[in-house]
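Please, structure for the following, as tokens.
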Amino acid sequence: YYCRNLSANVRAAFDVKRNSGLFIGAFACYGYKKDPENHNHLIIDPEAAKVVKRIYQLYLDGIGTLSICKILNEEGVPCPSEYKRIKGYNYRNCKKLQKTVYWTFSTVAHILKNEMYCGHLVQGKTQMVAYNIKKARYKEPSEWIKIANTHEAIISQEDYDKVKKSEDNVFSRYASKARQERQPGLAVPAFDIVTETLAQIY
């Protein structure tokens, strides 16, 4: 009972900070870094932010997600986790293969969907299943804690909205197409279907 109660209190304290517009993550998302004078505030990392801006511009110019990966990899641009390693951060991406140092579809797609780049703090996307189970569940977007205009934007809201609209259209179009080509009764998550289909297109 004590451990469960303590866990709930800690979670509540974190939510108070999130709702106050304070960043509480261990590492800033790619393109940002923690303000040395206030670790609960994000400031732009010029070197990484330049890559983020280029990814958005390439996409707005009509370059597909996998093609963007190819361009960055051919130019030898370090992927986010490799960039953090080079900069000396004790960072480990549990979703990345141990020796994967290149850009992937999911990495670029995540950057294109991350509203943090508009200057808005978006936190609380996951929650531990239970205090004694080291497993997290993804929350519905409606449950996320979003505070607007907490840090300097890298991408304008207008450009982000354009990308989101395009991404939503692509997802909807190819999810429908992919489902039609699937065998009846075969259950596959929509995102996996689209990812597989897009990989065959770009």
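The beta strands are 32-35, 38-44, 121-123, 126-130, 133-138, 145-147. The longest strand covers residues 38-44.
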